[in-house]
Fold:
Amino acid sequence: MLRLELIDISKQYPAVKANDSVNLRVKPGEIHAVLGENGAGKSTMMKMIYGAVRPDAGEIRWNGAPVTIRNPQEARALGIAMVFQHFSLFDTLTVAENVWLGLDKSLQLAEVARRITQVAVEYGLDVDPQRPVHTLSVGERQRVEIVRALMTNPKLLILDEPTSVLTPQAVDKLFVTLRKLASEGCSILYISHKLDEIRALCHNCTVLRGGKVTGEVDPTKESNASLSRLMIGAEPPQLQHRAAQPGTVVLAVRGLSLAKEDQFGMNLADIGFEVRAGEIVGIAGVSGNGQQELMAALSGEDTRAPAGSIVLFGNDIARQPPRPRRAAGLHFIPEERLGRGAVPTLSLSANTLLTRTGSVGRSGWIRTGDVAALAAALIRRFNVKAGGPDAAAKSLSGGNLQKFLVGREIDADPKLLIVSQPTWGVDVGAAAQIRGELLALRDNGCAVLVVSEELDELFEISDRLVVIAQGRISPSIAIADATIEKIGIWMSGLWGERAAKETEHAQA
Structure:
C-alpha cells in the first residue's frame, strides 16, 4: 500500500498554472526526491499535501484512502510534517514557544524545551530552546524548523531545501537522521537543487518542469548531467573562472571588535581582512559564528563599529549608515530574501526603490514609468519567472526572487558587492547564472565579498578564503592552497596557534 498518492492534481494561479495534472506515488519508508527548476511547481505541490493550499482538481490518497486536507492542522493529525524553505516562525517568541504552538497543549512548556534539547542532541542539530527566534541566523532557524517537524513523530516528512544553509558536517548528520527515519517506516519527500545529495540519499525521484511531471527515475542510476537535462532541458553552463588580477584595496577591515547586541548574539573579536578590486573573497563558517554581526557592521545596519575599523577606498565608514555607503559604491544582498532583501507585499517595481533611487526626482516624486522599466529589464536580463514588474515579491519562488535581488544590485554597477548566501534555495541553472554574474562583476574590476555556507560554491568562485568561527577571522588563504579538510578544521576555530596547541594536546 502506498503511503501517499496524488492523482491528476492541478492548481491555477492568476498568472501561472503551478501544477498541471501532477501524479506522485510515495511508499512507506521511501525517501522520494522532487526535482525541478525554480518555479516548476514543487513548493505548490508540497503545500497542497500539507493543507496550506487547496488543489483545484485531482485527488489525494493517504494510506490508500481518499482524503481532503483542508489545513495544516489536519495534515499534522494525519502524520504529515513539513519544513518550509521560507520559515514559519514567530520572531518575538522563543524556540520552545514556537515549537509548542504546533504540539498538544497539554504538554508543559518546560517539557517541550526538554524534548527539543533531546531531539537536537539525538540528531546532531544545535538548537537552544530558550533563544528568541529574532536572534537566530537563517541556518539556525532552519535547524529549529527541522527539530519542530521531528518532534511530531511524522509518518510523512516534507523537506523543502533542508540543507541549503547547513554545513557539510551537518548535512551528513541530517542524512543519518533521515535514513534512520526511513528505516522506521517514515516516508520522506525531499526537495533539493543539490543533485549530489539527491543521488546519495533518495530512492526515487519525480521531476517537474513547468508544472508538469516530465519523468520519474532512480537517482542512484543517474548522473548530475542527466538529472539537469531532465530538470532544465540542458546542462548548466560551465563557469569561466580566470585568474584574478587584484588591484587596489577597496575594503579594509582592521581591528573590528564589537560586543553582541543581545545575549544570544556573537561578539566580534579583532576582525581583520581586505578585499581588493577585481577579486572575490569568500567567508566560510558554520551559521551563528558571527556572520550576522559582521554583515550588519559592513552594510551599515549596525553603526557601533570603532572608528577606523571599516575603511572603504581609504575613507572611514565605520559609523556611517547604509545610504552614504551605497553612494560610495558599496551594495549589499542580505541572506534573508523576504523581509530584508525585499518587502513581501510590494511589487518588484517598488522593491527596486529600496536600493535604487535613480527614478526618484529631486522633489521626491517617483517616476513610475522608469521604475517599472527598470524592474522589467531586470526580469529579462536575469531570467526571472514573474508575472511582470507589478508582481508582488512574495508571489515569486525563492530562487526567482533571489535572481531579482542579485540582479538589482549587480545592475547598479557596484564598486564593492557584499552578498550573503547568494544561491540559497536556487536551482542548478540559476545558481550557475548567479555565480557567473559574480565572476563577470569581478572581471570588470568590482571587489566582491561572498558569505556562504556552501563550501563547493566558495571553492568554485573565490580567489581567496577566510573562515569565521566564534566571532574571529582566520588568516586569508589562496583558493589554490585551500582544501575542504583544512577549511573544515578552521570552521571549528582551529588555526594558527590554537591548532598547534590542540595538536600538542592530542599528542600528549
User: Anything to note?
Assistant: Residues 502-508 have pLDDT under 50 and may be disordered. The longest strand covers residues 17-26. The CA atoms of residues 160 and 191 lie 5 Å apart.
